[in-house]
Amino acid sequence: MTDWLLTLGPPAGAGYLRLLGLTCRFAHEGLARVAPVRDAGAVLCAVWHNRLLGPIIPYRGQNVGVVISRSRDGELISRVAARFGFVPLRGSSSRGGHRAVREVLAHLEAGGFVAITPDGPRGPRYRVQPGLAWLARRTGVPVVPLGVGYSRRLVFGSWDRFQVPLPFSRVQLVYGSPLRFGPGDSPERVCETVGRALTEVTEQADRMLGVTSP
Fold first, then answer.
1. How confident is the model at residue 97 (pLDDT cuts 50, 70, 90)?
2. Is 96 a residue whose pLDDT tops 50?
3. Domain with 186 in it: what CATH number?
4. Is residue 142, in this structure, part of any structural domain at all?
5. Which of 24, 25, 186, 200 is the most buried (most CB within 10 A)?
6. pLDDT tens, 145-158?
7. Beta-carbon neighbour count of residue 161 at 10 Å?
8. 48-62, 111-125, 190-204: range with highest mean pLDDT
9. Cα separation of the two ends of the chain
10. Are 143 and 163 in contact (CB under 8 A)?
């Protein structure tokens, strides 16, 4: 990624997201499932990497922590997210992992809401990686699967088939039942359970809009 893209990309990306906020219709399904745990304290919200743009508008300015890789692509995403009042928590399984863990734990201990893409930053697509399992077992914080669908979208040829909603589209968010894990749960069980739940709510979001997942 070139330096000029890091300079011009954030304002351009933020401008596009503001356009989506003005023209798109956002709908929430199952939000009542999340309200009790959110009111009680910290929450880990899991959303597939290729759908991460969907929640940005509804949750802007709410001090939500977002785990973002320390790659140059991650730097671009981080700058855009910060413009919308999100807290970038920088690191991934490949770069800056220990620092990211410290930042995530601090945000959760303060009762914060942390969003994580469990199949990122490099996939495989729709497969939960061990990082989320470690956090869920270590903290006991409830994990909320969030499915996101767009009625009209661009789909890129990246590893995750990244999706960008188009102006005047409908954006459907579907919240699954909160999942709780502890030290007695194996990482494999956590990954399988979260992956299954996240797939279900994502497919539900797509069905509600009459679209299919690429």
1. low
2. no
3. 3.40.1130.10
4. yes
5. 24
6. 999 999 999 999 99
7. 15
8. 190-204
9. 26
10. no
The DSSP bridge partners found for residue 44 are 114, 143
* β-strand partners of 127: none
- In the predicted model, is pLDDT for residue 4 greater than 70? no
Range of the structural domain that residue 28 is part of:
3-209
The Cα–Cα gap between 155 and 84 comes to 23
| Residue 95 domain flag | yes
> Rounded to whole angstroms, how far apart are CA atoms 81 and 27?
21
Q: Give pLDDT, residue 123.
A: 87
Q: Considering the domain boundaries, does residue 214 fall inside one?
A: no
SS3 158: coil
Q: Are 156 and 183 in contact (CB under 8 A)?
A: no
- Three-state DSSP class for residue 195: helix
Query: Which positions ≥6 away from 163 have C-beta within 8 Å?
Result: 50, 51, 53, 150, 153, 154, 155, 156, 214
> Given pLDDT bands bounded at 50, 70 and 90, which one contains residue 22?
very high
Number of compact structural domains in the chain: 1
What is the CB-side half-sphere exposure of residue 102 using CA atoms within 13 A? 4
Q: Please give the helix or strand (H or E) that residue 44 lies within, else none.
A: strand 43-46
Cα(48)–Cα(149) distance, integer angstroms: 11
